[in-house]
Amino acid sequence: MSGATRLVAGLLLAVSAVSQAHAQEAAQKAGLEVELNALAPSQKGCMMTFVALNNLAAPINKISFELAFFNDKNAVDRVTVLDFRDLPQGKKRVRQFDMPNVKCETVTRILINDTPVCDGLAAGECMKGLVTRSQVSVPFEG
């Protein structure tokens, strides 16, 4: 193989690797990201702060999440539905919910069980593309 042929082959390999990296990055960004950002005691119980980012192909007009809260015995303490309202495409939204009669320190894990409402062109994609993470010590799963 000549030096020029090796150079061309090397360049093609590099371009292919970069293209694959961009495709993987785009695939990772597609979806619906929901982060448990903070838990803070409140007068009612526990103020929960979430950050959501809609990276789906379309805006979500209305979405709600059914959340299960686990206690220190790893048992489901309660299940509730939270209305995240609209999530425009490509925009971050902060949503806060004051959970009455919930002590933050007793919540050991939170699970998104379902999306009972997922209205918009992305309907049906809400749970499929869901990515969760937690900025606090409480695990947040989807």
Molecular shape: globular
What does the radius of gyration come to? 21 Å
The major beta sheet can be summarized as: 4 strands, mixed
State the helical fraction.
10-25%
Strand-and-helix sequence, N→C? HEEEEEEEE
DSSP strand (E) fraction? over 45%
End-to-end distance: 52 Å
Q: Any low-confidence stretches, pLDDT <50, length ≥5?
A: 17-28
Placed side by side, the strands forming the largest sheet appear as 5-2-1-7
Instruction: Tell me, rounded to a whole number, the average pLDDT.
Output: 85
Estimated structural class: alpha/beta
Helical stretch count? Answer: 1
- The count of β-strands is 8
Provide a short characterization of the protein structure.
With 142 residues, this protein is an alpha/beta fold. Helices cover 19% and strands 50% of the residues.
What do you see in this structure?
The chain is an alpha/beta fold. Helix content is 19%, strand content 50%. It has one helix at 3-29, and strands spanning 32-41, 45-54, 60-70, 76-87, 92-100, 109-120, 130-134, 140-141. The strands form two sheets. Strands 5-2-1-7 form a four-stranded mixed sheet, with no helix packed on it. The chain has a four-stranded mixed sheet with strand order 4-3-6-8, with no helix packed on it.
Which features characterize this protein?
alpha/beta; four-stranded mixed sheet; 1 helix
SSE blueprint:
Blueprint: H1 3-29, E1 32-41, E2 45-54, E3 60-70, E4 76-87, E5 92-100, E6 109-120, E7 130-134, E8 140-141
Parallel strand pairs: 1-7, 6-8
Antiparallel strand pairs: 1-2, 2-5, 3-4, 3-6
